[in-house]
């Protein structure tokens, strides 16, 4: 399943120039949306999350949504609420002692939210089945359904390519492709407001390297300061402080939850661990410097 997922995502442009085109298109829509506020204050969470989510949604479902689409907004709300609930003490307790789930209201909300998202995904792939064309696959769901037909005919791997796995895959990719990037962008906006001198340096580098051109991946290598700022946003903000639980497969079978904060703010690894300091990722010549202690999402 992992091999199929990675291969299919690559087919739809992930890691290739195609995904850049999708991002560029979405950025244009986002900028037009922001200009409609004419410089007035507005709450950025919804539009930023919607813009980021549309990238992965266009791959999973083969379409993008308007930022004010009620179905889309409902999905984003459910996903955000579940991620927020997942970090609460009651849900963490329930993860350790599942039998307590029926006593906790937050656990019931989480389960109901997940069911609503699953129902939406199921309704979506049922729609895709109606006009599924093996020679014209438009989305990740289409590719999964085509592979499902093939495996059912051959009677091999059918236990993997079933509808429940499809719903779980789409849900996981939807969440993973939205929250971390959207949170990084929101933190970046906040930190640029708080540190205008750093914002000015980023703006100057963008103007010098990109100018009036369309931003492309190849520009990154020529923008060490901007790259350092992005990395420092993720280090300083500690967006995903606790990794998903892991379990040792040998010896004692203990479950381990890596605490990423411990390395991201380690005084032995960072010159100013508790300050926003992009120079953590720059060498003495101002070139971008990779750090082994930079583990923002997993360990």
UniProtKB/TrEMBL annotation:
User: Mostly located where?
Assistant: endoplasmic reticulum
Q: How does it sit in the membrane?
A: Peripheral membrane protein
Could you list this entry's UniProt keywords, alphabetically sorted: Endoplasmic reticulum, Heme, Iron, Membrane, Metal-binding, Microsome, Monooxygenase, Oxidoreductase
| Cross-referenced InterPro entries | Cyt_P450 (IPR001128), Cyt_P450_E_grp-I (IPR002401), Cyt_P450_sf (IPR036396), Cytochrome_P450_fam2 (IPR050182)
Q: Name one GO cellular component term.
A: endoplasmic reticulum membrane
Q: Does the keyword Amino-acid biosynthesis apply?
A: no
Q: Name one GO biological process term.
A: organic acid metabolic process
Query: Is Endoplasmic reticulum one of the keywords?
Result: yes
Gene Ontology molecular-function annotations: heme binding; iron ion binding; oxidoreductase activity, acting on paired donors, with incorporation or reduction of molecular oxygen, reduced flavin or flavoprotein as one donor, and incorporation of one atom of oxygen
Q: Which Gene3D superfamilies match?
A: Cytochrome P450
Location(s), subcellular: Endoplasmic reticulum membrane; Microsome membrane
Cofactor(s) needed for function: heme
Homology family: Belongs to the cytochrome P450 family.
**What is the name listed in the Swiss-Prot or TrEMBL entry for this protein?**
Cytochrome P450 2C15-like
Q: Which organism is it from?
A: Python bivittatus
Tell me the organism's taxonomic lineage: Eukaryota, Metazoa, Chordata, Craniata, Vertebrata
Q: Which gene encodes it?
A: LOC103049134
């Amino acid at each position: 399943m992992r091999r199929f997922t990675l291969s299919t995502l690559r087919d739809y442009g992930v890691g290739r120039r195609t995904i850049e085109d999708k991002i560029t298109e979405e950025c244009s829509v986002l900028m037009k949306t922001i200009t409609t506020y004419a410089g007035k204050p507005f709450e950025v969470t919804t539009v930023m999350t919607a813009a980021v989510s549309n990238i992965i949604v266009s791959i999973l479902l083969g379409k993008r949504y308007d930022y004010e689409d009620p179905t889309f907004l409902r999905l984003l709300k459910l996903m955000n609420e579940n991620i927020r609930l997942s970090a609460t003490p009651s849900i963490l307790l329930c993860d350790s002692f599942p039998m307590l789930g029926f006593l906790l209201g937050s656990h019931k909300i989480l389960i109901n939210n997940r069911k609503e998202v699953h129902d939406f995904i199921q309704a979506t792939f049922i729609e895709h089945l109606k006009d599924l064309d093996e020679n014209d696959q438009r989305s990740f769901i289409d590719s999964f359904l085509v592979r499902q037909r093939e495996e059912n005919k051959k009677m091999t791997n059918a236990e993997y390519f079933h509808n429940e796995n499809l719903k779980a895959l789409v849900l996981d990719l939807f969440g993973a492709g939205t929250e971390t990037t959207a949170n990084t962008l929101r933190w970046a906006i906040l930190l640029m407001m708080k540190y205008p001198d750093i914002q000015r340096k980023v703006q100057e580098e963008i103007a010098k390297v990109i100018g009036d051109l369309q931003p492309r991946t190849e520009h990154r290598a020529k923008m060490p300061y901007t790259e350092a700022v992005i990395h420092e946003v993720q280090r300083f903000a500690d967006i995903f402080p606790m990794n998903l639980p892991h379990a040792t497969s040998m010896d004692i079978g203990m479950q381990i939850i890596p605490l990423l904060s411990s390395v991201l703010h380690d005084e032995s690894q960072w010159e100013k661990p508790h300050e926003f300091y992009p120079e953590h990722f720059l060498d003495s010549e101002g070139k971008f410097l990779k750090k082994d202690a930079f583990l923002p999402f997993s360990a």
